[in-house]
TrEMBL record:
The protein's name in its UniProt record: Triosephosphate isomerase
GO annotation, biological process: gluconeogenesis; glyceraldehyde-3-phosphate biosynthetic process; glycerol catabolic process; glycolytic process
Subunit structure, as described in the record: Homodimer.
GO CC terms, sorted: cytosol
Source species: Candidatus Taylorbacteria bacterium CG11_big_fil_rev_8_21_14_0_20_46_11
Record field: catalytic activity: D-glyceraldehyde 3-phosphate = dihydroxyacetone phosphate
Length: 254
């Protein structure tokens, strides 16, 4: 049986009100429920997670944008993995580029990844280079980022791991100016090679790879087919239900 394509809606710090969040969630869930070959994962701000507790289906899942690396810790303002799991969160983004920009290190990301996996959720580990230099040093940056962010994650935890490649330099651009599918494919091959060296070929090939970085309805199909990835991590486009629905529909047709 074909594995479902995963399309993640990362709302970031949106929308501004509970009322808007309820409407956006309901509309997105309705659209996502129409397609059987796609799993739509909705990741609202943590403040809104309780609104949508245990509302996941086989086609639409609830996700978190971040989580802490310990349960029951003295960590004011943080949300623990067990709290997320208790409200029905099945996916948790870790190491997003915006979190890393705030100073989150690979060591912290590794702790979060392992904590999420141990709690029985899927960890969406984000990696990506800041710049793409002509000498190819970004390959080394990505390799080290991936290895360090998976420090301590043993093979037994890999069934819950998803890697999201999000080149920082490509985020926020239009589909026309975003990373080309052939280049995404090249990076997908490289990332799988690193994972193979870390674990083994079978384990590496079982880890889904998503792409994030100016993914829109216009480039969804080429990224998934020519880029050879298993899904998308979508930012601003996920806040427009019509546009996001077109992306899910395109993914379902791949």
């Amino acid at each position: 049986m074909r594995k479902k394509t995963r399309i993640i809606a990362n709302w970031k710090m949106n929308p501004a009100s509970l009322a808007e969040a309820k409407v956006l969630f309901a509309q997105t869930k309705k659209e996502g429920s129409k397609f059987d070959k796609v799993e739509t994962i909705i990741c609202p701000p943590s403040l809104y997670l309780g609104l949508f507790a245990h509302t996941g289906t086989t086609r639409v899942s609830l996700g978190a944008q971040d989580g802490f690396y310990a349960n029951g810790a003295r960590a004011t303002g943080q949300v623990s993995p067990e709290m997320l799991a208790d409200v029905g969160v099945s996916y948790c983004i870790v190491g997003h580029s915006e979190r890393r920009a705030f100073g989150e290190t690979d060591d912290v990301v590794a702790k979060k990844t392992l904590a999420v996996l141990k709690e029985g959720m899927n960890a969406v580990l984000c990696i990506g280079e800041q710049v793409r230099d002509v000498d190819g040093h970004y390959f080394g940056v990505l390799k080290n980022q991936l290895k360090d962010s998976l420090m301590g994650v043993q093979k037994k935890w890999l069934p819950g791991l998803i890697v999201a490649y999000e080149p920082v330099w490509a985020i926020g651009k239009s589909a026309r100016d975003a990373m080309k599918p052939r280049d995404i494919h090249e990076m997908a091959i490289f990332i799988q090679k690193v994972l193979t060296d870390m674990y083994d070929p079978t384990s590496a090939s079982s880890i889904p790879l998503l792409y994030g970085g100016s993914a829109e309805e216009g480039n969804t199909s080429p990224i998934l087919t020519e880029g050879c990835v298993s899904g998308l991590l979508v930012g601003h486009a996920s806040l427009d239900v019509k546009k996001f629905s077109k992306m899910i529909k395109a993914a379902n047709a791949v």
